[in-house]
Design a protein that fits this description.
Layout: E1 5-12, H1 18-28, H2 49-54, E2 61-67, E3 70-76, H3 84-91, E4 96-102, H4 109-120, E5 124-130, H5 139-150, E6 153-156, E7 158-163, E8 166-172, E9 177-181, E10 187-189, H6 199-217, H7 222-229, H8 236-247, E11 252-257, H9 266-276, E12 287-297, E13 301-308, E14 312-313, E15 322-327, E16 330-333, E17 336-337, E18 342-346, E19 356-358, H10 382-390, E20 405-411, H11 417-430, E21 435-438, E22 444-448, H12 451-463, E23 469-471, E24 475-476, E25 479-482, E26 486-495, E27 498-508, E28 516-519, H13 528-544, E29 552-553, E30 555-564, H14 570-584, E31 590-604, H15 608-617, E32 621-627, E33 631-639, H16 646-654, E34 659-669
Parallel strand pairs: 1-3, 1-4, 4-5, 5-11, 6-11, 25-29, 28-30
Antiparallel strand pairs: 2-3, 7-8, 8-9, 9-10, 12-13, 12-19, 13-18, 14-17, 15-16, 15-18, 20-22, 20-23, 20-24, 21-22, 25-31, 26-27, 27-30, 31-33, 31-34, 32-33
Amino acid sequence: MKQPIRNIAILAHVDAGKTTLSERILFAAGEIHRPGRVEDGLATMDYMPEEKERGITIESGVAHFEWKNTWFNFIDTPGHVDFGAEVDMALTAVEGAVLVVSAASGVETQTVASFRKLRESRVRTILFVNKLDNPDYSLDETLINIEETLGVRPVLMSVPQFKNGKMHAVLDVLSQSRLVHSESGAEVLDDGWESDAGSAEERALLKKYYAEAVEFASNFDDEILSLALENKPVPPKMLLRGLKALAASDEYVICYAGSALEGFGVRSLVTALSFFLPEVPTFGENELGQVVRLRHFRGIGEISLFRSHVDLLRRDWPAGFEFSRLKANMLLPVDEIRAGDIYAMVSPFETELGQVIYLDERGESAAGTSLRAEGEAIYEAAGDAAENAAGTAAPSISENYLPLLQTRVECVRTEDYAHVERSLSVLARMDPSFRVQKDDGGFWYLHTVGEVQLDVLLARLKREFGCEVRAGSPEVRWQERLCCAVGPAENTFQIGPHKMSISISASPLEGDAHDIRLSAEFMESAPREILAGVRSALLESTEVGVLGKGPLVGVRFEVHRFEWTEGALPPMIKKCCADAVAKLVKPADVQLYEPVMELSLECPVNFAGLVTGDIQAREGKVKEIEGDGKTHFLKADVPLRKIFGYATGVRSISKGTALYSMKLLGYRPASV
């Protein structure tokens, strides 16, 4: 019998202890001999220098371990909002996830966002309430907060125990046992529990939570319900069956509790991952697998994180392919790949995120998309397949992220131009929320979600690719919108014997639509490359905008006439259309819209006045204020242009005690 495979992700709000828990899981499974501390920059999963320096996860780390005869691929995802695309990509390759909730802060904004992503992706979720080593933090209050905020009933399966104000054990509900630390720091069953003076009280507590679990599971298992109604005992194996059905529902969630830092509650959690996660799905016929992540190793080149869809021995691998295990920044070669497992892949062609690689009848693979022909290999990106089937392109992860900042970057040495351009292209392919805009003046604009993402990209550009660049200060990426319909405008462009001319007009779309639409029915009979060239040229023109502050959005272009000579090249089409748009839309025709952020913040009550006053000084509008006597909570709408450098400012005001997160609320007409 083949060893079962489970792929899991771990998600949380920043500073909830997610990476620390990841380290403890690897330690509990025997994968590492000592759990690294994030505070010391020694976390195994955070291998990048930028991660060690900042103490946050930036790039989804991947680890592997065995537990209860199950093979796990374990993905530690970023908690910082700037790297949300990393989380989205990770969720395409997993069957289950651990969502960490800090007992110190409760359910926070990124916790809610992560839980929503998990539900939308139909990823089985197990909660872990962390930081309960501090007896001042309440497990009961956190469970109530989870139920009220996330809208699910947590079913508690482990209960921390304290002695003299310190956590010293964890009670496991399903096995009705107590776990303590061995001399090595690992969690082990407490064989001397029977003689412990407090065992009677703890057993009563376990009995209470076991009865609760039976009550909840009886909603999903008729046999459990029948025994419960007759007041008969429900054996653990039967309860486990009912809890598996419960775990698949939307009304309940399996929950464990403890301390990742102190290593309590982790063993029970890992065992739960063996019990409650679904099997890997059945994959399509003739699929080699799917690309779920792209990485770059200096000296090696590009590596794809790849989820295999087939079982293949090395001798049967397609020509030019190599597969390895990825451990931090090391590649360990393997001799076979298994369906559902995750590997580092080197391929003979450039891959794309989300791409499915298909095998032909001979077990070979080829790059590029081609029409099916007798005996030929077929290769398609998942997005291309969806477009062919439905007639429209499938939405990509990049469409869920709007870059809010733009930064001008240029080469330090002109001879490095081609190398920098290639390197930026690779980074843009690796991160679907990062985009590069080339300027004809010999420089680039980097479009990023936030400042942290920008800093990390510039550091990686130098460290991984050896690129020396000069970067300007980041600026807010505004949006431009048409105030009224304009045009038509005429433009003619000619080089040698090749000539083309266009007549075009534009009008604003209704509401807050931000897409670009093209109406050119008469061009349906034109060659595909001509129509594609016009569409691409218009999209590039709107990306630059008219005022240079951001893209022109929410526009419908109508091409009234387009004439060309045979043999016209794409650069000529681009130039003709770009000049036409420049003639068509003038600065007076557009209105600037600025991004507004929703800021969620918490701090000790003694800093409430200073923090609130600082937000109001930044043109922030406070819309919610709450507190529990110890902690001050608020939500405010703040213009992005006023929130630059906020991390340093709020740290100074609150003496490092404030926690905050931001998300894009929308765009409003600019007042500056």
